[in-house]
Write a sequence for this structure.
């Protein structure tokens, strides 16, 4: 395949590239959906497989842990063996692991299958994003394509409960995993025809020690953060975070000594790259943290079923799509820093709206607040991702795309851990002296854990006592929601100020310079033939 990208004007994408984008959007949406649908299946899954508490924790978390842990390594492997090849290998593995998960006969089998899903998912995300940069050379088209990629990831996150709830009403718990099979089949069949191949043959084999350090460090750090969100600060969570930070420090030290490192630290000499990556992590943190509490509000305070909660999340879906996909078009007419700052101000306003939620009757307020937050954060997620990917030379786009994806995964974990810890601390503090008298001690301790635990235990109490317990715990949860919304509003406002100052000279990434483009074209043509 011959593509002239050595001229001053970048070539515009053809119908083949837009069809390729449609194919790449499907696995992106599926990965996001798989992060949420399992939560809906837990009640029936638990009744069938009867996992212990530790096994249940690993069933839920192992998928996200391994995606985050393997992203950087898989991005580097894709640069060496070919990004399309890695994507198709990952699609086969993801489909097979989906079937294993759906028909798991015990907890150990499901944990193993979910681990394979996470590793396979880590091959998909950096491959899709890095291929988009190769396929779309025109800056405006590349912005639209990355916005669409981001929008479909957000769409998958939000419609996961809707699709999962529908399948669970019609079929058994394993059906939610089979959603991935037809999507992977479409990718395997049509991918070779509409997706280009790209590899950098000058890249050596990824450093195994660096890969182990990065995986172990990220897993330890995210595990510690999740433990803090669930159980508060305990010795095991503190040790995990210390180990994760120590491995991260050793990893960075090793990268500085390698001729071809797994992560090119020279990228961080570009202030724009580091700033965009940091702000992307924080924007994802705000999105994940707010959605974590809003979804619980819909189901546990308002009392909606998973399917109903999914339907009420559709306004947020539309808002995320508008923000993520509309921002690249506006970037050509509005200064980039102004656009990003304005989006973050909108997100802060959405957080303020959430502070007005006071009880089950404020459904419309909660939905409106979540939608405004999604609309405001959409530009930062899509354009921030574009800034990160655009800072790298084409031959390193795989590893850099993996860093952007790792940033969003880390931001999601931090959102639940940090925002969740704040909210549940307020929840427990509000319950300290307000629980109904006469409750058995085990019931009191259970109710103080989480609102979900309180709702479950209330069903086993006498009607009057259970109703009083629900009223008190739901009110305490709403106080936690209001507090996290205040924290989110302040953080969004600070991010807006930072964007106005630190990104004041930022521009939408343009085509590569001629010398760099010529080298990329040769690798591109050779790989595609």
């Amino acid at each position: 395949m011959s593509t002239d990208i050595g001229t001053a004007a970048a070539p515009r994408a053809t119908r083949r590239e837009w069809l390729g984008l449609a194919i790449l959007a499907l696995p992106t949406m599926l990965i996001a959906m798989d992060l949420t649908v399992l939560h809906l299946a837990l009640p029936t899954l638990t009744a069938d497989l009867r996992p212990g508490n530790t096994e249940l924790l690993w069933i839920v978390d192992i998928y996200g842990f391994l995606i985050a842990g393997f992203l950087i390594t898989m991005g580097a492997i894709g640069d060496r063996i070919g990004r399309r090849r890695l994507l198709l290998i990952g699609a086969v593995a993801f489909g097979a692991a989906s079937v294993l998960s759906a028909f798991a006969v015990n907890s150990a089998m499901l944990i193993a299958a979910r681990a394979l899903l996470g590793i396979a998912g880590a091959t998909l995300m950096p491959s899709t994003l890095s291929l988009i940069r190769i396929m779309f050379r025109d800056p405006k088209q590349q912005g639209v394509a990355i916005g669409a990629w981001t929008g479909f990831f957000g769409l998958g996150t939000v419609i996961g409960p809707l699709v999962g709830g529908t399948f669970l009403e019609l079929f058994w718990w394993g059906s939610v995993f089979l959603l991935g099979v037809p999507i992977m089949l479409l990718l395997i069949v049509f991918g070779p025809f509409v997706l280009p191949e790209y590899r950098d043959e000058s890249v050596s084999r990824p450093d195994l020690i660096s890969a182990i350090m990065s995986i172990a460090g990220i897993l330890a750090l995210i595990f510690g953060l999740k433990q803090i969100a669930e159980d508060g600060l305990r010795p095991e969570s503190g040790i995990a975070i210390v180990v994760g930070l120590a491995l991260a420090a050793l990893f960075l030290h090793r990268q500085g000594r390698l001729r071809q490192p797994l992560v090119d630290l020279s990228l961080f000499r570009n202030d724009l790259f580091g700033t965009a990556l940091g702000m992307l992590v924080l924007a994802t943190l705000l999105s994940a943290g707010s959605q974590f509490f809003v979804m619980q509000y819909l189901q546990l305070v308002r009392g909606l079923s998973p399917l109903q909660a999914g339907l009420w999340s559709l306004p947020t879906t539309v808002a995320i799509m508008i923000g993520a996909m509309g921002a690249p078009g506006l970037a050509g007419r509005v200064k980039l820093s102004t656009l990003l700052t304005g989006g973050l101000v909108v997100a802060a306003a959405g957080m303020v709206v959430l502070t007005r939620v006071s009880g089950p009757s404020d459904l419309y307020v909660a939905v409106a607040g979540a939608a405004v937050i999604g609309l405001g954060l959409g530009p930062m997620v899509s354009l921030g991702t574009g800034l990160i990917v655009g800072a790298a030379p084409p031959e390193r786009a795989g590893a850099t795309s993996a860093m952007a994806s790792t940033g969003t995964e880390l931001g999601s974990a931090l959102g639940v851990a940090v925002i969740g810890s704040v909210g549940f601390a307020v929840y427990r503090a509000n319950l300290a002296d307000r629980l109904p008298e006469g409750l058995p001690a085990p019931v009191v301790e259970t109710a103080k854990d989480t609102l979900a635990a309180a709702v479950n235990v209330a069903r086993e109490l006498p009607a009057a006592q259970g109703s009083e317990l629900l009223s008190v715990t739901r009110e305490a949860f709403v106080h936690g929601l209001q507090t996290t919304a205040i924290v989110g509003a302040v953080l969004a406002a600070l991010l807006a100020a930072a964007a106005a100052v630190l990104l004041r000279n930022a521009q939408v990434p343009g085509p590569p310079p001629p010398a760099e483009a010529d080298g990329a074209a040769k690798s591109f043509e050779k790989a595609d033939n």
